[in-house]
Amino acid sequence: METKCGVTMMNEQKNETSRLNVRSLNEECGIFGVWGRSDAAQLTYYGLHALQHRGQEGAGIVANNNGHLWQERGLGLLSDVFRDTSRIEALAGKSAIGHVRYATAGSNGLENIQPLMVNFHDMQISLAHNGNLTNALTLRENLEEEGAIFQSSSDSEILLHLIRRSKADKFIDKLKEALNIVHGGFAFLLLTPHGMFAALDPHAFRPFVIGQMPDGHYIVTSETAAIEVVGAKFVRDVQPGELIAIDDNGLTIDTYTDKTTLNIDSMEYIYFARPDSMIYGVNVHKARKRMGAALAAEQPVPEADIVVGIPNSSLSAAAGFAEASGLPNEMGLVKNQYIARTFIEPTQDKRERAVRMKLSAVRDVVVDKNVVLIDDSIVRGTTSMFIVRMLKEAGAKSVHVRIASPIFKFPSFYGIDMQTTEELMGANHSLLEMTKMIEADSLGFLSVDALVKAIDLPYDGEGTGLTTAYFDGHYPSPIYDYKASLDRFVRSGEVDFVPEPVTTYHPRQVASLRHQELLSDGTIHLDSQTIQGVEI
């Protein structure tokens, strides 16, 4: 089983060999929601546009018009789905949630495009999800045995079934009960006729933030970049285990569990998030520059002439490496900005052609130069090989690859499309073998300790506050349905799992949140026109 952006893929893994993404890593999704605005759907469109990097194969928006939910969704880029302006116009109402997603083979049907929407006899519910549930297979099988009928292969749909089966009287209590049953990485946005709800998993694997428009109305979204785009002001990061309720009375921050830790996915800082986003007080661009500087200190290239970053996510790290090493930071590669993510047949010539469609070497910049090529990560290694080959064909004297993250050795289970060790070059080859495979003159990676220091999360609780399991094998939670896939690494002592938390993480363990005022019951109550209760 694989789960990609909330899509459970059972018995479909063989289909994955039929096509391959030329970019090795894919984020799961981006989500955006707003309550109380007459232009809610249009605002959601703009917010999702800022999150397009988090998912490019499907998009959808659901609006609440006087208690009636209406859905528009489709395959492709956001601009493709809503090219017909009548689709946005059909989304009348003062509240909306939206979703952009990444899809893989076998899971790219319209039925899996979110937000999902269900119509019960007494209410409608819409749901958008960023992340991956690690106990989805077990829950789905149990629900189906009890008579549940699923309309999609999405693990996100599981939460809707759990909510409906709850015996609690109030919707908020039904939702809390369901959230305590699912495990893994999740940032959920739910829209009902009466309110909008946001919930983050007990580890805060995925980024999730609250903003406020100048008129006082609230938005909840995946990254602060989307807050900036719509002209809102950042209020706070959603905390692990929190349940945010937004309605006409304002915003209430509650919790569905007090058993929490902080384990932000380090890949958000390394690759996924926009460089202009802030995650728990850390600017992504600055973190990447520090990664590049640390890489220059740990993996120098004494004979280098120039530094070249792979557009676009590696440019910040390249700037940091060049600055720290005193080398020119040159534009030796140019990206074609008009080509979206492309799936191709996994043959060498077609893969290489796809890379050349996206990237071009600037011959006059790299010819007769010893080049330091900076990338954020190596997963399968095929793209790296093609880029190294491209630079050498353009006349580079040598190409020394430096990676601004540690070696990928283990899969991700919390919301990234990387869930088998078979596809990880670093899990199956030595450093020397990898160097030869990508045809580089040398290859170096950032250490885990240097990565954590470079991110510089202002955190003083237990652990680092980050998830680095892909590099060091220390998973911050059980992985349930996926555990068998790592049994051999557990037996060899390379992988271990921390039990689910039994203590409470407190926001004051993050320096940027220490002045936040909590009420005695652990909640924060905000007036819809101000941000009182939260010190910015």
From TrEMBL:
Residues 29-249 form the Glutamine amidotransferase type-2 domain. It is an enzyme of class 2 (transferase). SUPFAM superfamilies: N-terminal nucleophile aminohydrolases (Ntn hydrolases), PRTase-like. Pathway: Purine metabolism; IMP biosynthesis via de novo pathway; N(1)-(5-phospho-D-ribosyl)glycinamide from 5-phospho-alpha-D-ribose 1-diphosphate: step 1/2. Binds 1 Mg(2+) ion per subunit. The active site is at residue 29. It catalyses: 5-phospho-beta-D-ribosylamine + L-glutamate + diphosphate = 5-phospho-alpha-D-ribose 1-diphosphate + L-glutamine + H2O. The keyword Glycosyltransferase applies. Its cofactor is Mg(2+). Coiled coil: none annotated. Keywords: Glutamine amidotransferase, Glycosyltransferase, Magnesium, Metal-binding, Purine biosynthesis, Transferase. PROSITE patterns: GATASE_TYPE_2. CDD domains: GPATase_N, PRTases_typeI. GO terms for molecular function: amidophosphoribosyltransferase activity; magnesium ion binding. It comes from the Bacteria. Mg(2+) binds at residues 313, 375-376. Its EC number is 2.4.2.14. InterPro entries: GATase_2_dom (IPR017932), Ntn_hydrolases_N (IPR029055), PRTase-like (IPR029057), PRTase_dom (IPR000836), PurF (IPR005854), PurF_N (IPR035584). GO terms for biological process: 'de novo' IMP biosynthetic process; purine nucleobase biosynthetic process. Catalyzes the formation of phosphoribosylamine from phosphoribosylpyrophosphate (PRPP) and glutamine. In the C-terminal section; belongs to the purine/pyrimidine phosphoribosyltransferase family. This is Amidophosphoribosyltransferase. It comes from Leuconostoc mesenteroides subsp. mesenteroides (strain ATCC 8293 / DSM 20343 / BCRC 11652 / CCM 1803 / JCM 6124 / NCDO 523 / NBRC 100496 / NCIMB 8023 / NCTC 12954 / NRRL B-1118 / 37Y). The gene is purF.
